[in-house]
Amino acid sequence: MSAPVRTAHPVCPVADLPPGGRKIVEIGGRSIGVFRLEDGRFYALRNRCPHRGAPLCEGRRMGLWTADRPYHRALERDGEILRCPWHGWEFDLTTGKSVFMPEGVRVKSYPVGVEKEPETSVENFDVSERAGMVVVWLGD
Amino acid sequence: MKTETQIDSPAPGSTPAPPRIRVVDTDVHHNIKGKEDLYPYLSRVERERLVEYGLPRNTGLYQANGGWKGARADVFDAGEEVDPRSNFEMFQRKLLDACGIDIAILQVELTPSLVALADIDYSYSLVRAINDWSLEHWVAKDPRYRLSITVPLQDPVVAVKEIERLGDHPSVVAIYGVCGSARLYGKREYDQVYAACVERGLSFALHFSNEGFGMNPPPTAAGYPSYYAETYLVRPQFYQAHLSSFLFEGTFEKFPQLKVIFCESGFGWVPSFRWRADAAWKELRWQTPWVKKLPSEYIEEHIRFSTQPFEESNPPEAVDQIVSWMNGAKTLMYSSDFPHWDFDPPDVVPKRLGAEVRRRILADNALAAYPKLAGLAGS
How many CB pairs under 8 A join A and B? Predict the structure, then answer.
């Protein structure tokens, strides 16, 4: 009957996670990687590759290499693909879906946001952003 | 936990109850930090040559690998510029301790580039150096390590010299050779190598590499692949060629004690190879009458297969049937291939196979495959 319970778990002050950065944290017994892209967007993924259990979030952020025909490579979405540090399985950082089988193989993705602390919640957006906490929401 | 599983180097005199060995890792790749590490082990003329020209490189065909620079991307603990294969402390932490490895058999990363050189004297000087360096800087510093010594198999006479020089070291358990070779390893020139191995209780660990490099023939007899993924997939053919040679040259009739370890060969192909080899022998036996038994019997007795990269079958449980068909309970041995990018942790061996089979694959089969480990107790 009741709506799913979502709990916000603090990760770090937003200043500690600059654009392009990542933090790997332990929340509720789970290791979770929190990423901030260069344009400011936040994403969080479970730090465990569904293949062999590698610490996925220690992998490199890459772009999506594509080819519309053999030998003609193109790079899209630079920085939005996470490549597993062990066997190279690629995941979409923004959804947790694998590149090779998006619907069949994926890693858990969590919503991330910045919670402004009440005392610093002034009109100036930048100030409150800097003063806020990055939080990850975990479902029930 | 760690002290429970640690084992001591063979010591003369008293023999306390040996600890149980639960995991043996049969394929681990350490390396030097740089060519300077070898200088103390070289004569002046060899050192000057190494200073001037650097280490021989064997990556000319592809200049690519998996992971990051061929290694797991999460093991560059000493920074981007330091080869993680040279990070002794990281190996202890991320392989031996993290994976509960009781014995790890080192097979140095540098080997391939040293043993495809046509100049056998320079090759051998570098081989001696890397073996002595490995014993001094890795094996002597952690009792869990054993070493497969590099031998310059491009010249069997010189290879025997290195076996005679180091083969009686208590931590040397095998010779380390690569599949890329001017000759197939069943050829009778190699009999002297196997005689020297058997005499000292050494196995022959055979690992892909060097195909098409240096003085060796191309990586496939059908042409040069363009991409790394292709070379990854064609590896079984290297092992199949050497295996056919061992079988029909009668190597195992000549050396009934010899064990050959196929490192990183994959194993999904083994059942069909056994069937085809048995069929061929029944039809063609008269041409090689010194082959007394079914090829599958020789394979089961003499060849051991390291598990990594563990076959990923579809459906997943299909691999269990392959394990059964090749008698993997006797012939498979766990390997991690650390710190390479296609690393497998010990739990890659499926629980579905049952506790007894897992125990054999993780430890007991290896203890039986290397005569010098035979005295250790499995789990």
Answer: 35
Contact B74 A58 (CB under 8 A): yes
What would the pLDDT profile of B263-280 be if each residue is shown by its tens digit?
A: 999 999 999 999 999 999
Task: Kindly report the pTM of this predicted structure.
Answer: 0.88
Measure Cα distances from A22 to A14, A58, B248 in Å: 11, 9, 57
Is B73 touching A (CB cutoff 8 A)? yes
- ipTM > 0.90, yes or no: no
Within the 44-73 window of chain A, which residues sit less than 8 Å (CB to CB) from chain B? Answer: 52-55, 58-60
Q: What is chain A's length?
A: 140
A105: DSSP letter: S
How many C-beta neighbours within 10 Å does residue A56 have? 26
Whether the per-residue pLDDT at A27 is higher than 70: the answer is yes
Chain B residues near residue A54 by CB distance under 8 angstroms: 72, 74
Q: Which helix (H) or strand (E) holds A110?
A: strand A109-110
- The reply to whether residue B73 touches residue A59, judged by beta carbons under 8 angstroms, is yes
pLDDT score of B59: 61
Residue B207: partners with Cβ closer than 8 Å, 6 or more residues away: B27, B107, B176, B177, B178, B179, B263, B264
Answer whether A13 touches B (CB < 8 Å). Answer: no
Q: Using CB atoms and an 8 Å cut-off, which of residues 80-139 of chain A contact chain B?
A: 83, 85-88
User: If you measure CA to CA, which chain A residue comes closest to B310?
Assistant: A52
